[in-house]
TrEMBL record:
Pfam families: Chitin_bind_4 (PF00379)
Domain of life of the organism encoding this protein: Eukaryota
Protein name: Cuticle protein
Alphabetical keyword list: Cuticle, Repeat, Signal
Single GO term (MF): structural constituent of cuticle
Upper taxonomic lineage: Eukaryota, Metazoa, Ecdysozoa, Arthropoda, Hexapoda
Organism: Papilio xuthus (Asian swallowtail butterfly)
Length: 171
């Protein structure tokens, strides 16, 4: 029985995939026209960047925002496979974290972290608003107890195994 089901499922899948024609259709006779000139589009050449065996760069930035108190900076330089840099940021706990780092093929990545307290001056954006709510009178509603509800679970019925297949789409 299982073999017949598998064979039937395979036939339906093949028919749904369009490998076996589902119906025969007849088309009007084809008329041939003059050939159309065809020229292949030129192939675009990809720009390949030249490999730099000894890359070098240097960059830095610094942010000092007196309104929000945001304070951070970074600088980094690279010479070949050796990178040196440092960055600092003011953490939420009021300390300034400074990280000095180096990276090279021999020692890998190494970082030294220093923390120091900083007095950050943050300008007030808006003055606090005084708010006084009017007192609210609250009276609890009386508690009403309902009769107990009997609950009986429905019996569990175990069915036989189910067969699942992919949906069948017709073209």
């Amino acid at each position: 029985m299982a073999f017949k089901f598998i064979v039937l499922t395979c036939l339906v899948a093949v028919a749904s995939a369009g490998l076996v024609p589902a119906a025969v259709s007849y088309a009007a006779p084809a008329y041939h026209t003059a050939p159309v000139a065809y020229a292949a589009a030129p192939v675009a050449k990809l720009a390949v960047e030249e490999y730099d065996a000894h890359p070098q760069y240097s960059f830095a930035y610094d942010v000092q925002d007196g309104l929000t108190g945001d304070s951070k900076s970074q600088h980094e330089t690279r010479d070949g496979d050796v990178v040196h840099g440092s960055y600092s940021v003011v953490d939420p706990d009021g300390t300034k974290r400074t990280v000095d780092y180096t990276a090279d093929p021999h020692n890998g990545f190494n970082a030294v972290v220093n923390k120091e307290p900083v007095a950050v001056k943050v300008a007030k954006v808006a003055a606090p608003v005084a708010y006084h709510a009017a007192p609210v009178a609250y009276h609890a509603a009386p508690v009403v107890h309902a009769a107990p509800v009997a609950y009986h679970a429905a019996p569990v019925v175990h069915a036989g195994p189910l067969a699942y297949s992919a949906p069948i789409y017709h073209h």
